C-alpha cells in the first residue's frame, strides 16, 4: 500500500499533462553532427595526415586541440537546450488559411545566454529565438491552417547548432495545445433586407440614433465610416475609430444558413456565414446566427462575435447532411 | 544570409590566419592577397554588391598562373600554402551566406596548421592558440547571430579553447604516434638552413661565425670534458683544387680506433641541417655501433637531417686512429695542385730538409703561426689565385679555415699526409639546464696529420695563433671591433642570465614537447606498464581518459545550483522531510495548498506542518527577522 502510494506520488510528481511547465532533460535531447561538423572532421583528418607527413609536433597538438574543441562543442550545444523551462501558452483563434501562432514561453534560469534556438512545428515555417541569461521569452510557433475546427499543435522540434555549428541538438516538444480555426471568410454582401428580420434603420445613416461612442476599426469596416477627428487624437497613436450609434433594440439581422446558396458546398456556406458575421460585427449591427440544429440569439459585441465564429468553426457536418436530406 | 557585422569577424579571421605567412611568401603574392582583402573589405563597408563569377574566375586564374610561375608547381608545400592564402582572400569576395562563412572558417583552421611548416617555437605556439581562439569566436558569432556580442563571444571562445586543452594533452601523450612521412614529400618540404657544409673555401667559416643560431645541444651523462677536448667532428676534406676543399667521395675501409681514455656517453640534439653527418665528439668510440662511421671517422646517418633529431652517442677524447693506413689514402693526402702556391712549397721543402722528424716539421709550422705577425680575424682580405702564398706571406689575416688550409698545404708540401677536418669546437654550458650549447659561430676547421706509429693526429693551427679561441670560445678570441653577433658578446651578467633561461626554456620545449616522437611515446608507455603489443590497453586507456574528461567537463558545465534564499532552502529541507512520509509537493502547489492537502490526506502531519508553513510565510513575506529561527525549530519538530 505504502509502495503504491509512493509510486502514485512519483507519477504525480513526474506526470505532465502537456499544459504544465516542464524542463528539458537529457532524456529528451538528442545530438548529431551537422554537415559542417562532418566537413570539420574530414578537415581534421587531412590536417592530421599533414602533421604526420611533415612530422609537425605542434601540428599534432593543433589537431588534438581542435578534436577537443569538437568534443567540448557537444557539451555546449547540449547545454544550449538543457534545463530549459517550457510553458505552453494559449493560442488565439485564426481564420483558416492564416498562420496559427502557438505561444510558448521559454525560461532560462542559467547565467548563460542561449542563442540560436529554432522552433519548428512539423513541416511548418521555423522561427528563431534567443534568451538572455536568467530571462524568459515568448515564442509564437507558426502553423499553417487549412481547415476550420480545432487545430492541435503538431510535434514541435526545438533545435540549435549554437555555439559551433558543428553539432545539431534537438528535442521534440509535444505540448497539449490547440488553436481554434474559424472558417475562411468569404466576403459577400449582407443578406438582402427584405429577407431578414431586420426592423428599423441599419447602419447609422438615419437620423434618430443616438451617438453611443467610438470603437476600434476592424478590417471589415469601410474607410468611409472612420471618425478621422477622433482617430487623430493622442497624436495618432490610437487605432482608427468608428462612430457607434445606439439604434433601437429591436434592430436585428438574422444570418441564416438557409440564406446561403444551397448549391454550394457546406464549407463554402460556412465561409459565407463567417464573412457575414465579420461584416455585421464590423458594422456594429445586432445579429443572430441560425445554423441547422442550432441557433444563436441576436446580440452585439466581441464575445458574441467570438461565440458565433466558434459555432461556425465547430459546426459539424452531420447536421448539414441531416437537414439537407 | 549573414548579418553585416558578422563579416567583420570573418575579415579578422582571414587576416589573423594569413598575415604571418607574409614573412615567407613572395612579395607579389602578399601584395595580391592584401589588395584582394582590401577590395573585399571596401565592398563590404560600402555595402556594395560582390563581384560576379567571371571576375572571380579571372582572379583564380591569375593566382594559379602566378603560383605556377613562382613555384613551378601547384602542389608542393610552399605552393600549397600560397594557394590556400589566395583562396582565403578570394573567398572573401564570395562571402554571402553562412555556408561561405563556414568554408572560410574551416580554411582558417587549416591555415593555422601551415604556420608550423615554418616555425614551431613557443611564440608561434602562443600566437596560434590566440588566433585559434579568434577563429572559434568567429564560428560562435556566425551561429549566435547579432545577439552574440563581441566580448562575451570572445570570452566564450576562450572558455571553449581552455576546456579543449585537457583533451589535447591526453591525446598528445597517448594517441598512437606514427612516424612520418607517409609518402614521399615534395622537394621543398624542408627549408635550407645555414650551417656547416661539406666544402671549405675561404670565408665560409667567418660567415658562420656571424650566426648565433644554435647548431646542436648536448647533454653529457657525466661531467662536460675540458673545452680543449671539445672538438665536434664533421666532414673530413681531402681534395684541394687550390681554393676549395672537398671530401673524398670514393669507397674507404672501416676506421680502426684504439681508445686511450674511458668512453664518454652523451645525447646530442642536432638542429635540422640537411646534412648526413652527425657531429660526434672527436673521436666516436669503437663501441658506437648504431651508426655508420666512414673511413674518415665521420658518423653518418642514412637520411639527411631534415628535422631536429636526438641521438645517443659515445666518444673517447684520447685515441689512436688508423696506425696502419692504406698507402692509397696516404698518397691522396699528399696531393697538391701543381703550379699553385710556389712560395709555400718552397718553404715547406726547406723545412723538410732541415727537420729531423715529421713532428719537428709540424712544430715549425705552428711556430710560424705563433711567432710571425698573424692575426685571427673575421674580416680577412680577399685572396687571389695563389691563395695560400698570399695568406702566408702577405695578408697574414684570416679565420680558422685560412690557418687550417695553409697548414695542410705546408704539411703536404713537406711530405706529411695531412687533411682538413670541419666541425665545431667548444660550446657554452647553459647553467640553467646543464646542456652544452653549440652554435653556428662555434664552427671550426682544423687539421689532421698522419704520423707513423701514431696514426692520424689532430693539429689545430688556430690554437697557435689564438689560444683563446680554444680555451674561451670565439667571443673571447675576438677584439670588440669584430662584427660578432650581439648575443655572443653580452658581458652583462643579468642579460646573460636571461639569455640562458630563455634558451633553457626553448630547449625544454624542443626536448619535451616537439621531441615527443614515437620512440619517446614508447618509452613513456612502457614506464606506465604498457608495452608495444598492448595497443588494446592503450586505446582503452585513451578512451577511458577522454570519456572521464568529457563527463567531468559536462558535469562542471551543466551543473547548476539554484540560487535560493535561506528561507527557501529551509523550505526545501522541509519538503524533503515530508517527502519521506509520502507527500510530495507538486510544482504548482503553494505552501497553503499543500498544507490543505496534507490536512486532508495525512492528518497526523497537519499540525506540525502548519507550523512550518506559518514560519516559512512569515520569514519570506513578513517583516520579522527572527522568524528564520522559528522556521528551523518548526522543521526540527516535523516527525
Quick take:
Chain A has helices at residues 2-14, 35-53, 57-81, 228-232, 266-283, 302-314, 317-324, and strands spanning 22-23, 29-33, 85-88, 94-95, 99-107, 114-121, 126-131, 136-144, 149-152, 156-160, 167-173, 178-182, 210-216, 241-246, 253-256, 287-291, 294-299. Chain A contains 7 helices and 17 strands. In chain B, α3 packs antiparallel against α4 (77-92).
Number of distinct beta strands of chain A = 17
Distance between the termini of chain A: 58 Å
Q: Which chains share the greatest interface?
A: A-B, 58 and 68 residues
Strand order of the largest sheet of chain B: 11-6-1-17-16
Determine the fraction of residues in helical runs of chain B and give it as a percent range: 40-55%
Globally, the shape of chain A reads elongated
Helical content of chain A (DSSP H or I, runs of 4+):
25-40%
**Rg calc of chain A:** 29 Å
Given helix and strand content, the structural type of chain A is alpha+beta
Rounded to the nearest angstrom, the radius of gyration of chain B is 37 Å
Mean model confidence by pLDDT of chain B:
84
Describe the structure.
The complex is a heterodimer of chains A (325) and B (639). Chain A is α+β, with helices and mostly antiparallel strands and 325 residues long. In chain A, 31% of the residues lie in helices and 29% in strands. Mean pLDDT of chain A is 81; it is low at 9-15, 193-208 and 321-325. With 639 residues, chain B is of the alpha+beta class. In chain B, helix 11 (358-371) runs antiparallel to helix 13 (400-413). The interface between A and B is large, with 58 and 68 residues.
Keywords:
heterodimer; A: 325 residues; alpha+beta; 5-stranded antiparallel β-sheet; 17 strands; elongated; disordered C terminus; B: 639 residues; 12% strand
